[in-house]
Please model this.
Amino acid sequence: MKSQSSTARRAARAAGLVVAMGAAVGTWLVWWAMVATWPGQRVEERVFETADRFQDVVNPLVEPVLLLGSLPWLLTGLGLVCGIGLLRRRWVAAGLAAVVIIGSNVTTQVIKDGVFHRTGLVGEWNRDINTLPSGHVTVVVAAWAALLLVTPRGWRPLTAFAGAVAACGIGLATLGDRWHRPSDVVAAVLVVVAWTALVCAAAPRGWADRTGGDPADRADFSTWLVTTVLGVVAVPTAGLSVLAAAATEGHTWTGLPWAGGLTAYTGGLLAACAVSAAAFAVLLPLCQATARPWSSGRRSAAPALPGRAYPRMSVPHHKVPTEPP
Model:
């Protein structure tokens, strides 16, 4: 039992490191493909051209959502998430949640202002100002990802599903109101995924769940169900998003009859939905695996046999009992 538990723990930690590294590399790839190249900038410029047509209609609908990405809501989310962890007496989980929120938001601002750059190749909107990753998206997604760390095991599937919906909502709001480009949304979500996976990989044993807590079978089934649903949403949505980007300029090699700004706009919206679903489809099972209470390997006392209870008898050390003939 001890070896199986240790092996599962090492596998979960290794998976967390792989996810963190993949998300970090993915953030750079998104910047290179969509910000540092002419085709990428052109596709996102078409998104803005179309978003500008609908902005008057979209703005009243999404403006309240965009407020959730502001600094006051960042502090509110940090306090609420850490407060839940402290009330549940999960001290380590509360600290790890704070690391996810603070680390994700600081990383977003640092790489946006000091690491990634933008040379305007097309368009006029913020031509030479780098906006990748989105700070507003980072605030909302980091809060929900951190909430996964402090909620009970049985509540994490529902939390992950709600987090995917919230991430999709803030992503669509920033795109619809012309605040950010699709690549900004995708990169912000990947930054949060990297920090959450890294924290799960580095967390000590028993950092969240305790033996005798939520029923494992019910929590595991809910985890499988939510992960499957989010994965089913993420995979085809991501494929359609890539297809829309390829068809935006009407390249004949795609064989598609449609092209233009509406296609790019639709592809950008699909990209926000795809990365939101995929992020929590990955983080939920990872969090459940690393938070599972591990066996200590100690041999438990033998259970009492049913029937008559016999009093404990002490035998003097100088007398050796013998079996009856």
User: Anything to note?
Assistant: Confidence is low (pLDDT under 50) at residues 252-258, 295-311.
